[in-house]
TrEMBL record:
Residue ranges crossing the lipid bilayer per the database entry: 6-23, 30-46, 52-71, 115-133, 174-191, 234-254
Source organism of this protein record: Austwickia chelonae NBRC 105200
Keywords: Membrane, Transmembrane, Transmembrane helix
Name used for this protein in its record: Uncharacterized protein
Length: 326
C-alpha cells in the first residue's frame, strides 16, 4: 500500500510537469498527439483497449487534443487562410463543449449500465451546468493560446467527485491511476493561480493517462487498487454526489437568471480583469436609512415592459422612483 501511494505521488508530479510542458510548447504538443493517435494498431494487437467505452473514450479524447492543438497553433501564429481562420472562430468552442458533454455522458451511461443510478443522474446534471460556449470558453490571445474556461470551484469539485465515483466502480485496479489524473488536473490551476486553466489541465492529464493505458498498461502491476472497492461505498457515494448536485443546479440557474454569471463564474485575476473592463458589473447597491436600497445593482432588475430582458438595466445611481416611471 505504501508503495502504491508513493508511486501515485510520483505520477501526479509527472502529470503536472507534462501538462505544463504541453501548455508551453504548443507545436510539440500538436505533433506528439498526432503521432500518439497513430499508435492505435498497438492497441489492437496488445488488446489493452477493451470494450466500446474504452475505445470511444480513447479515440474522442486523443482526437480532441489534436483539434485543440490546431486551434492553439492558429491563435498563436495567426496563420492566414480559410482553414486557420476558421479554427480561430469562437464557434469552435461549441465543439469542445460538445466533446466534454459526450465524455461525461459516456461515463454516465456506463454508470447506468452498472446500476449506479444516482451517479448517472449527477453526470447528466453536470452536462446541464457546463458553462456555455463561447461565452465562458475560449482560446486566449495573450501569447500562450491557452484553453480557458470559466468554471466555478463547485462545478470542478462536483465533476471530480462524480468522476472518482465512476472510476471507483468501473476502473477496478486502475482507480489509483484515475485518482492521480483528477488530482493533477485540480492542482495545476491552483498552483498557477489561474482557475480558468482547469479544462486544459483536465484535457492533457486525461489524454496522457489514456495514451499510457492504451500502449503500456502497467497500472495493475505497480499502482493497483484492486482491493479498494466496496459496493455500499460506491452506491452511497453516488447518492451523496446527487444530493450535492441539486443545490448547485439551482444556484447555477439563478446566476444565469439574474445576470450575475459573468462575474460569479470567473475567479481570481480573471474576475478582477473582467470587472476592470466592465465597471458596470461592479456596482454595489447604496443604502439609505435602515438598509433601504435606493437603486438597483446591475443584473438585478427585470424591466416591467420586457420581463425576458435581464441585462438591459439603467446606469447605477438612478433613484428607484425614476426607474419605475420608465
Amino acid at each position: 500500500m505504501t508503495t502504491t501511494f508513493a508511486l501515485m505521488a510520483v505520477y501526479i508530479v509527472l502529470l503536472y510537469m507534462a501538462t505544463d510542458y504541453f501548455r508551453r510548447n504548443y507545436r510539440v504538443s500538436l505533433w506528439f498527439w498526432a503521432a500518439a493517435i497513430g499508435t492505435f494498431p498497438i492497441w489492437i494487437v496488445t488488446g489493452q483497449v477493451e470494450g466500446w467505452f474504452r475505445w470511444v473514450k480513447t479515440l474522442t479524447v486523443l482526437s480532441t487534443i489534436i483539434v485543440l492543438g490546431l486551434m492553439r497553433v492558429s491563435m498563436m501564429e495567426k496563420r492566414p487562410g480559410r482553414f486557420w481562420e476558421f479554427l480561430r472562430s469562437p464557434k469552435w468552442m461549441w465543439f469542445l463543449y460538445g466533446v466534454l458533454s459526450v465524455n461525461i455522458l459516456e461515463a454516465a451511461l456506463k454508470d447506468l449500465e452498472t446500476g449506479n443510478v444516482w451517479n448517472f443522474l449527477t453526470g447528466v446534471l453536470l452536462c446541464v451546468t457546463i458553462p456555455f460556449a463561447p461565452k465562458f470558453m475560449g482560446i486566449s490571445d495573450d501569447g500562450r493560446a491557452d484553453l480557458i474556461a470559466y468554471t466555478t470551484g463547485a462545478w470542478n469539485f462536483l465533476y471530480t467527485t462524480w468522476n472518482l465515483n465512476f472510476t471507483y466502480g468501473e476502473a477496478g485496479p486502475h482507480f489509483a491511476g484515475s485518482l492521480c489524473i483528477l488530482l493533477a488536473a485540480e492542482l495545476y490551476p491552483l498552483v498557477k493561480r489561474q482557475p480558468e486553466l482547469y479544462y486544459m489541465a483536465r484535457a492533457y492529464t486525461l489524454a496522457i493517462h489514456l495514451f499510457i493505458r492504451a500502449n503500456w498498461d502497467f497500472f495493475p502491476a505497480y499502482m493497483s487498487s484492486a482491493g479498494w472497492f466496496r459496493q455500499d461505498v460506491w452506491l452511497n457515494w453516488g447518492l451523496i454526489n446527487f444530493l450535492l448536485m441539486i443545490p448547485y443546479l439551482f444556484w447555477y440557474t439563478w446566476q444565469l437568471h439574474t445576470g450575475r454569471a459573468d462575474v460569479t463564474f470567473r475567479r481570481g485575476r480573471a474576475r478582477s480583469e473582467f470587472l476592470e473592463n466592465h465597471p458596470e458589473f461592479a456596482v454595489e447597491p447604496r443604502t439609505a436609512g435602515l438598509g433601504q436600497v435606493d437603486h438597483f445593482p446591475l443584473g438585478s432588475l427585470v424591466l416591467p415592459d420586457n420581463p425576458r430582458k435581464v441585462f438591459d438595466v439603467p446606469e447605477p445611481g438612478i433613484p428607484r422612483e425614476n426607474l419605475l416611471d420608465r
